[in-house]
Specification:
It contains four helices and 26 strands. The mean pLDDT is 96. It has helices spanning 78-81, 94-97, 285-295, 321-327; strands at residues 2-7, 10-15, 18-23, 25-26, 31-32, 37-38, 49-50, 52-59, 86-91, 99-100, 102-107, 111-119, 122-123, 132-140, 145-153, 158-166, 179-185, 188-192, 208-209, 219-227, 230-239, 245-252, 256-267, 272-282, 300-304, 312-316. 45% of the residues are buried. The chain is 8% helix and 49% strand.
């Protein structure tokens, strides 16, 4: 069973395994906060939403002053953004400032697909606005997770263009009251919620950088929710091609901030890049690993079958993204 209803700007989705809402107005992109429910256990997400997208960035020159209106780092901003030099390429931030997304819902055979898209309209010199972001969310009848994929088609040349996404999503808590543990696969470790009682910046702990750190076998981030004060299931964000992740961190700033930055490679106008993920509920890390191993290597997802009623999904490799975009 898989069904949906549209109520105003909200898409309500229910399958045999989960419930979820997608809001196309207000705080947009991904699955809305507190609406992703695991029917098996009754657990729900405890953050600001899942698979939430922001803006486009590139590395900044650390020897140049930060321009007015640009991304702030270092100095008095080190406690929030850290000391890593970055600069905006295009905005606005989709989740908080797009306000409304165009969308379509496609009913398939055992699938429900929601596509959303947005064109950034704020450029930061010397770059111009006009890059397009597309997100595809795919729900299946019995899985406790959904597939998500982001694709960016850029209008700009950059030495290392990347976009930012909450993956799986931030964690609201007070002294670790909503989650038991956090799991990271790079390198593999399980961190107790008590490690997140004091604020620290992105580069103050749990920072991953592709150009600095060994490429992990799998790229998985998950948190174990509490149910009635006891350890519950894990809510995981699995990025299916580890090398797509340019930078990722997990720090405390009044909530646990779980951000990934995807891309980070040279681009020219017309280039397309992106990432694909599995986001959902799991009973164990072993179950997460199994799904990564089944779908690992995907940087995108395409639908099989008729456009008006797809019958399945196909993984798209990293080096195929631009070719696929031109072909469609």
């Amino acid at each position: 069973m898989i069904k949906h209803t549209i109520e105003g700007s909200t898409i309500h989705i229910e399958t045999d395994a989960i419930k979820a809402d997608i809001r196309t107005e207000g705080y947009t992109s991904g699955v809305a906060a507190g609406t992703f429910i695991d029917k098996k256990t009754g657990a729900r997400d405890v953050g600001f939403g899942l698979s939430i997208v922001d803006f486009l960035l590139e590395p900044a020159d650390p020897n140049q002053p930060v321009e007015k209106g640009q991304y702030e780092f270092g100095g008095k901003f080190a406690g929030v953004h850290g000391d890593i030099p970055k600069r905006y390429v295009e905005g606005p931030q989709i989740c908080t400032q797009a306000k409304k997304l165009q969308f379509e819902v496609i009913e398939g055979d055992g699938l429900l697909v929601v596509r959303q898209w947005f064109t950034w309209h704020q450029g930061y010199a010397p770059h111009r606005a006009g890059s397009r972001w597309e997100q595809t969310l795919i729900f299946t009848e019995q899985a406790r997770y959904f597939f998500s994929t982001d694709r960016v088609t850029t209008v700009n040349e950059s030495p290392a263009l990347y976009f930012r996404v909450d993956m799986p999503g931030h964690i609201k808590h007070s002294g670790g009251d909503t989650f038991e543990h956090l799991y990271l696969s790079y390198p593999e470790r399980t961190i107790p919620s008590t490690d997140f009682t004091m604020n620290f910046p992105p580069d103050g702990g749990n920072l991953y950088q592709r150009d600095r750190d060994p490429l992990p076998e799998r790229f998985i981030r998950a948190y174990q929710v509490k149910l009635d004060g006891k350890p519950g299931p894990w809510l995981a964000g699995i990025t299916l091609e580890a090398s797509d992740v340019y930078e990722a961190w997990c720090h405390e700033r009044g909530y646990v901030c779980l951000i990934e930055e995807l891309g980070g490679r040279p681009t020219k106008p017309g280039d397309t890049f992106g990432a694909a993920y599995i986001v959902g509920w799991f009973d164990s890390v072993a179950d997460m690993n199994l799904q990564y191993d089944l779908h690992g290597g995907w940087s995108g997802i395409e639908l099989n079958g008729p456009k008006n009623r797809p019958t399945g999904i196909v993984g798209v490799k990293q080096n195929e993204l631009t070719i696929v975009k031109k072909r469609s």
